[in-house]
Amino acid sequence: MADKVTATPAALALIAEIVADHGPVLFHQSGGCCDGSSPMCYPQGDFLIGDYDVKLGEIGGAPFYISGAQYDVWKHTDLIIDVVPGRGGMFSLDNGRERRFLTRSEICALPPREPE
């Protein structure tokens, strides 16, 4: 499967920062109630990939997974991982950095705003 996930320059920079602090990481697209649809970032080896999880690709050298059931709903679009101000998910490595990862899709992507 071709990569179905990409990252903005801001996301790649935050990934590099987290990897410098924690070593290699992986992402799992959250579908839970508490963190909404935030991509969760974990140290590699600290998160068990499920038998039905689907690898969408890699961003910043980090593998990116989604549950099979959620993939069935989102398989029609590619995901774009971005960064916005705020706190990451409780167990995600972006928590406490005052920036968090955010999932956008190619269907909902807006063109960059022109400076006012």
Automatic annotation (TrEMBL):
| Name of the protein | DUF779 domain-containing protein
Protein species of origin: Bradyrhizobium quebecense
Source lineage: Bacteria, Pseudomonadati, Pseudomonadota, Alphaproteobacteria, Hyphomicrobiales
Extract the Pfam families matched here: DUF779
The organism sits in which domain of life?
Bacteria
